[in-house]
Design a protein that fits this description.
The chain is of the alpha+beta class and 467 residues long. It folds into three domains: 135 residues, OB fold (Dihydrolipoamide Acetyltransferase, E2P); 66 residues, E3-binding domain (Dihydrolipoamide Transferase, Irregular); 207 residues, Chloramphenicol acetyltransferase-like domain (Chloramphenicol Acetyltransferase, 2-Layer Sandwich). The protein is 27% helix and 22% strand. The longest helix has 25 residues. It is elongated, with a radius of gyration of 30 Å. The protein starts with a helix and ends in a 7-residue tail after the last helix. Its cofactor is (R)-lipoate.
Length: 467
């Protein structure tokens, strides 16, 4: 019976190791499995990339403590990204064994180990002395290699003793441009953002294996030039560049350098629009409170349905211009940390009261940094409204790629326009200046003009929004 029990335990151990190896391959994007003699089998949780532009983030707080049970879909930490604060939801069952990066840590690179979890609660105590070095930087926690790499290791040994010629270093790569690497090595390199062409393989025929990627040290970046010395007696304050400000700068620089844009400007009467707004608000009975911006969002969405070429994106790398059937309007919102563009989705089919409620909710949560990625990433056309600032009559704005158009709204102004009814020959109208910026790769000048014309017609005859 004892022998049978030992065999059963051995079989269970083999099955468990096989399961670990499969987990290491599948879950490597956010966590990596390790097994060593120093620590029980465990999984290292890395700093996740919670948005496409995220390269580093801050850890706002930990929702779990060491020893707590982890449940799939339950948040374990709040991560501050380049755009917002979001919950990092864990997708496995287990127990939090070690927190490697404390709450409040700033600029933690994506992929850096931040915590450790284990499958058995009894293993938690063994990780009290676990450090960041044990999470993959040292030999004590070498990653479990997949079964595909095991044969490569076995082939390596006899090659070293077969002949004197074979005794040459196995890391010498054949004279070819092709990079030979194991599947696990490729996955680790992708996870760490390392180019395989910079790594010298130690496997047979120069094959790159997992340990080569793990041991590779990324060269330190060149030192930044020293800041210019201030003029004698100058008074100034150096304000650190935030992650969000860096992303804004990068995207807008990309837009100005790569998008051949042009502008079209038009003065549009909003006299009827303002009367419609006042009438609707008077009968709302506190159910909603429409703003001019709410009505303009609806007008822009309808104009984009009538001239759909503007509601498109340039996807040059795919060889296509993507023309959208739905109109998702990105609304520029100023927050304490920078500009963000939450999205009113399907604005072309939503009622004015629904748009108004969504804009208020999105704007509030944007300023609190509580938007989820899908609420500010994407969009098919953008509106930027500085009309609330009475000093701004007109301005131009920069396209938010890959969108092809952005609409800048100035303040309302009084302007005399000809009238056959008034005995003086003119009347005063409420007028706003609207400036559209278009990507010429997608929207030709004539098409941009047609879109502005359609927008003008809808705004000056706002009852069309109700049809």
């Amino acid at each position: 019976m004892s022998a049978l029990l030992s065999v059963s335990r051995a079989a269970l151990s083999v099955a468990r190791v096989a399961s670990y190896k499969q987990t290491a391959t599948v879950s490597l994007q956010w966590a990596r499995l390790y097994s060593s003699g120093k620590f029980p089998p465990h999984t290292v949780i890395n700093m996740p990339a919670l948005s496409p532009t995220m390269t580093q983030g801050n850890i706002g707080s930990w929702a779990k403590s060491v020893g707590d049970e982890l449940t799939p879909g339950e948040p374990i930490a709040e991560i501050e990204t380049d755009k917002a604060s979001m919950d990092f939801e864990f997708q496995e069952e287990g127990f939090l064994a070690k927190i490697l990066v404390d709450a409040g840590a700033k600029d933690v690179p994506v992929g850096k180990p931040i915590a450790v979890y284990v499958e058995e609660s009894a293993d938690v105590a063994a990780f009290e002395s676990f450090t960041a070095a044990d999470a993959g930087e040292g030999e004590a926690a070498a990653p479990v290699e997949t079964p595909e790499e095991a044969p490569a290791a076995k082939e390596e040994a006899p090659a070293a003793v077969s002949t004197p010629a074979a005794a040459a270093p196995t890391s010498a790569r054949a004279p070819t441009d092709r990079i030979i690497a194991s599947p696990l090595a490729k996955t680790i390199a992708l996870d760490k953002g390392i180019s395989l062409k910079n790594i010298k393989g130690s496997g047979p025929n120069g094959r790159i294996v997992a340990k080569d990627v793990e041991n590779y040290k990324v060269p330190a970046p060149a030192a930044a030039p020293a800041a210019a010395a201030p003029a004698p007696g100058a008074s100034y304050e150096d304000i650190p560049i935030t992650t969000m400000r860096n992303v804004i700068a990068s995207r807008l620089l990309q837009s100005t350098q790569q998008s051949p844009s042009y502008i079209i400007q038009s003065q549009i009467s909003v006299t009827k629009l303002l009367k419609l707004r006042a009438s609707l608000n008077a009968s709302a009975e506190d159910r909603y409170r429409l703003s001019v911006n709410d009505l303009l969002i609806k007008a822009i969405a309808l104009a984009s349905v009538r001239v759909p070429e503007v509601n498109s994106a340039w996807l040059g790398d795919q060889g296509v211009i993507r023309q959208y059937n739905n109109v998702d309007v990105s609304v520029a919102v100023a927050t304490p940390t920078g500009l963000i563009t939450p999205i009113v989705k399907d604005a072309h089919i939503k009622g004015l009261s629904t748009i108004s409620k969504e804009v208020k909710d999105l704007g509030k949560r944007a300023k609190e940094g509580k938007l989820s990625p899908q609420e500010f990433q994407g969009g098919t056309i953008c509106i930027s409204n500085l009309g609330m600032n009475n000093a701004v009559t007109a301005f131009t704005s920069i396209i938010n790629p890959p969108q092809s158009a952005i609409v800048a709204i100035g303040t309302t102004d009084k302007k005399a326009v000809p009238s056959n009814v008034n005995e003086q020959g003119f009347v005063f109208e409420d007028v706003i200046t609207i400036t559209g910026t278009f990507d010429h790769r997608v929207v030709d000048g004539a098409v941009g003009g047609e879109w502005i014309k359609a927008l003008k017609k809808i705004i000056e005859n706002p009852l069309e929004m109700l049809i």
